[in-house]
Design brief:
Helix content is about 40%, strand content about 20%. By secondary structure, it is an alpha/beta fold. It folds into two domains: about 70 residues, Orthogonal Bundle (Arc Repressor Mutant, subunit A); about 130 residues, CBS-domain (Roll).
C-alpha cells in the first residue's frame, strides 16, 4: 500500500495537530471536505488514522509498514496457502492411522468417504487415547474414535486467512479441512476435502508478512 503525496500530508497534519476534524484538515490543505473524503477513508481503513464521531481524526501510532501488513493480511485467502490434505477412510484401522500420522508428521487426519467427502477428523489425542486403552489398534477402525460431521470445524479456499486462524485458536485445533461444497445425486449438499489449513501455514504467513520492507 503506497500513500499518495496528499495522503502523506494528511498523516503529518493529524500527527502534529490531532485530534482534528476533517473540515479542519481540508482547510489546511485548501481543499473541500468532499475532495478529502476518499483519502481519509483509505487512511482510516488502513489503520493509520483513527476516526471518532464529534472528535475527529487522530494518529493510530502505526507505521506505514504496519498498515501494509494489516492490509495484506485482510486480503489473503486460505486457498493461497493451503496444504495437501492427509486423509484416511473411516474403515482404516487405528494402527495404520497412527503410522500415517507419524510418516506425514501431522497432528490430525481428515477422514473421507468415496469422492473425498468430509466425514470426520481424528486427532493425535484421539489415537493416543485409543491406543492406551484395551482396544486392539489393528482391529478398531478410525470411525470409532473420530469426531464426526457436523461437529467439524472447516474452512474454504476463499475464506480470509485471518478468520481461519481465529478458528484454529478459538477451537484449539491443529488444522482445518479446506472444503468446497457440491450437491450429490440425491440433492444433498456435501463437502469435498481439497486441502488443509494448519498452524504451520499460519506461521509461514506471519514470516512472509514480517519480511515486508
Amino acid at each position: 500500500m503506497e500513500l499518495t503525496d496528499r495522503q502523506e500530508r494528511i498523516v503529518e497534519i493529524v500527527k502534529s495537530r490531532g485530534p482534528i476534524t476533517g473540515e479542519h484538515i481540508a482547510d489546511l490543505l485548501n481543499l473541500t471536505r468532499a475532495t478529502l473524503r476518499p483519502d481519509l477513508t483509505v487512511l482510516t481503513m488502513s489503520g493509520l488514522l483513527e476516526a471518532r464521531p464529534r472528535v475527529g481524526y487522530s494518529f493510530s501510532g502505526k507505521s506505514k509498514n504496519d498498515a501494509l501488513v494489516a492490509d495484506r493480511l485482510r486480503r489473503l485467502r486460505v486457498g493461497d496457502f493451503k496444504s495437501i490434505p492427509i486423509v484416511v477412510r473411516e474403515e482404516t484401522n487405528l494402527y495404520d492411522a497412527i503410522v500415517t500420522m507419524f510418516l506425514e508428521d501431522v497432528g490430525s487426519l481428515t477422514v473421507v468417504s468415496e469422492g473425498g467427502v468430509l466425514e470426520g477428523v481424528v486427532s493425535r489425542k484421539d489415537l493416543l487415547k485409543a491406543s492406551l486403552g484395551k482396544s486392539d489398534v489393528h482391529q478398531v477402525p478410525v470411525g470409532v474414535v473420530m469426531t464426526r460431521m457436523p461437529n467439524i470445524i472447516w474452512t474454504t479456499s476463499d475464506e480470509p486467512v485471518l478468520l481461519a486462524a481465529r478458528k484454529v485458536i478459538q477451537h484449539q485445533i491443529d488444522s482445518l479441512p479446506v472444503v468446497k461444497t457440491f450437491v450429490d445425486s440425491l440433492g444433498k449438499e456435501k463437502l469435498e476435502v481439497i486441502g488443509r489449513f494448519t498452524k504451520t501455514n499460519i506461521t509461514g504467513i506471519l514470516v512472509e508478512l514480517g519480511d515486508i520492507r
